[in-house]
Structures are given as structure tokens and as C-alpha cells.
Write a structure and sequence with these properties.
It is a single chain. This protein has 322 residues and is of the alpha+beta class. Among the domains are: 84 residues, no CATH class; 94 residues, Chitinase A, domain 3, CATH 3.10.50. Helix content is 54%, strand content 12%. It is built from eleven helices and six strands. It has a four-stranded antiparallel β-sheet. A two-stranded antiparallel ribbon has the order 1-2. A hairpin with a 2-residue loop joins strand 1 and strand 2. GO terms for molecular function: peptidyl-prolyl cis-trans isomerase activity.
Length: 322
């Protein structure tokens, strides 16, 4: 969606404030000075005003009215709003005309800003056109929801573990746990190499097993609630002793609850696909970054500096002997 100038909206808001203040000060209309503008019925259709022969289009007025009305609902539909909008657009057009007379648009930095604004406007228009031409249907949303639901459905676990370096040490701990399962937390604090869970008695909280390495998740799937692995579980990190405290079915939010977010995500995916295709077809050449500036040359000591320093030292020493 196009957005009007923030400065223009601010000026428009300020104008309403000043107008409101003036209305409160006087209940009778003051005499107004003769204006240099005039209302003419001869303007072409779709033109709201002319400034030195340059048209101010009704479409631009409507755009500002829409945005200003959304920010100031109490002013929506107020006939004065249209007058204020046209006045501000008139001033903006006059200022822009003066800038062109001064050749400010020829300055490199101004030309760059104008080109960047043009490209940004076109890019936004392209995005809006793509969204409009590729609507996300309810059927597509339902299909994507089912795919994600099957992908993320399953159990999540609440478990503890003890991580050690050797299989022998892991078996020793398992033997101790067989005699006293309640000592798991104490054994984790005393032996575990996992700094993230060690101080919490090995507690990992609730998690999706797919977030763990495959061997760890596979071992969890074989355990019942309250059980401890009877064999060390070897992973890339070492040897684990795992205790399963609880398990539950992973909840998936209903489609109606996540529909707006899912639709936006699918639109972004479609946009990314389109951009990737455009980039693959384009010929893009990127210049090498400029070489860093050479360091400043070191200043060479002036002639006689060393001798003068030595002489100063000898003079100071001689003075100290007196």
C-alpha cells in the first residue's frame, strides 16, 4: 500500500490543531485577506487543483484523506478536511517547484534519493500486484495447515539426563540408579558434563524430541513414564542416562486461530519464490569492495633529536651532582 509523506501528514495534523484553537478563541468568522488562489469549475475531471499549471490529482487527495481519516477518525468526512489536504498539497507542490527552479534535483545526493524513492514505490506496487494476482485460497490454506499439522504433531517429553564421557562411567551411574532411583538429581549434579542442566538435577523441561540428536529422541520413544534407560545412550556428545518424567500429545492450534499468520507466511513464500526466479534469470555484477586506505606514514625523527636528548640527560646528571 502506498503511504503519504509523514511530513505532510504532520503538517496536516498541525493545521487542524491551529484551526481548532482559532475556533475556540472566536465564535464569529474574522475577515480573511484576499487569497491568490481561486476556485475554478473548468478543471479537468480528476484534477482537484492547479498550481502554476501543475495538476494536483484527486487520487492524491483521496490517498491523504484515507490515511488522515484512519489516524483521526473524528475528522473523517469533515468537509474542512478536504480543504486542509488540498492546501497542504498546494504548499508542497509550490515548494517542490521552487526546488526544481534551483536545480536541487540535479544534486547527486538528491537524485539518488529520488531514484531510491521511485524504486521503493515500484517495488511496493509489484508486491501488492503479486498478492492480488496470486490469492491464497481457503483450500490452499487448509492443505498447508494439514501439512504443518502432520509435520509438528506427535509427543513432547519432560525428561532429565546425565551426560558423561565414558560408557564405563555411565554404567556405574545406571547401577547406582537401580538401587536408588531417587538419587538421579544428586548424581546429575555430581557427574553430568552438561552445564545447562547439571545444576537443575539434569532437568531438560518440556521439549520436542526432534529438537534433540536422533539417538536421544529414539531412546525417549522407548521409555514409559517414570522409567530410566538401562543402557547408556551414545551420541556425539558422549554417553547419556535418561529419565522420562512425563509425556503428552503436542497441541496444534486450530486453523481459525492461525489463519492470518499462515496466510501471510504463504504470501511471503510465494514472494520469495518469485524473487528467486527473477534473480536466477538476471545478470548481476557486484563490484569488489574498495581497498582500505593506506595507513599514514610514520613521522621520522628530526635530525639531532637523539643528540639533543643525550645532551639534556648529561646536563641533568651534572646538575644533580652539584
Amino acid at each position: 500500500m502506498r503511504t503519504p509523506s509523514r511530513l505532510l501528514l504532520s503538517l496536516l495534523a498541525a493545521t487542524f490543531v491551529l484551526t481548532a484553537c482559532n475556533d475556540q478563541k472566536s465564535s464569529t468568522p474574522a475577515k480573511q485577506e484576499a487569497a491568490q488562489s481561486e476556485t475554478s469549475p473548468k478543471l479537468k475531471e480528476g484534477v482537484a487543483a492547479m498550481v502554476n499549471g501543475e495538476p494536483i490529482l484527486e487520487s492524491r487527495v483521496a490517498l491523504l484523506l484515507e490515511h488522515f481519516g484512519s489516524q483521526n477518525p473524528e475528522q473523517a468526512g469533515n468537509p474542512e478536511t478536504r480543504k486542509m489536504v488540498i492546501e497542504q498539497l498546494t504548499m508542497q507542490t509550490l515548494i517542490a517547484q521552487e526546488a526544481l527552479k534551483k536545480g536541487l534535483d540535479k544534486k547527486p545526493e538528491i537524485a539518488d534519493q529520488l531514484e531510491l524513492t521511485r524504486q521503493t514505490t515500484l517495488s511496493n506496487a509489484f508486491v501488492q500486484d503479486l498478492i492480488a494476482s496470486h490469492p491464497i485460497t481457503d483450500e490452499a490454506l487448509a492443505a498447508e495447515y494439514d501439512r504443518l499439522k502432520s509435520q509438528f504433531a506427535g509427543n513432547e517429553y519432560k525428561a532429565r539426563h546425565i551426560l558423561v564421557d565414558s560408557e564405563e562411567r555411565a554404567r556405574e551411574i545406571i547401577a547406582k540408579l537401580k538401587k536408588n532411583p531417587q538419587s538421579f538429581a544428586a548424581l546429575a549434579k555430581a557427574n553430568s558434563k552438561d552445564p545447562g542442566s547439571k545444576e537443575h538435577g539434569g532437568d531438560l523441561g518440556w521439549f520436542d524430541p526432534r529438537a534433540m540428536v536422533p539417538e536421544f529422541g529414539a531412546a525417549l520413544d522407548k521409555l514409559e513414564k517414570g522409567q530410566i534407560t538401562q543402557e547408556p545412550v551414545k551420541t556425539q556428545f558422549g554417553y547419556h542416562i535418561i529419565a522420562l518424567d512425563d509425556a503428552r500429545q503436542k497441541d496444534v492450534a486450530p486453523l481459525d486461530q492461525i489463519k492470518p499468520m499462515l496466510k501471510q507466511q504463504m504470501q511471503q513464500q510465494a514472494m520469495r519464490k518469485q524473487l528467486d526466479e527473477l534473480k536466477a534469470k538476471a545478470k548481476i555484477v557486484i563490484a569488489e569492495p574498495p581497498a582500505p586506505a593506506a595507513p599514514a606514514a610514520a613521522t621520522e625523527p628530526q635530525e639531532g633529536t637523539a643528540e639533543n636528548t643525550d645532551a639534556a640527560k648529561e646536563s641533568a646528571a651534572a646538575g644533580g651532582k652539584k
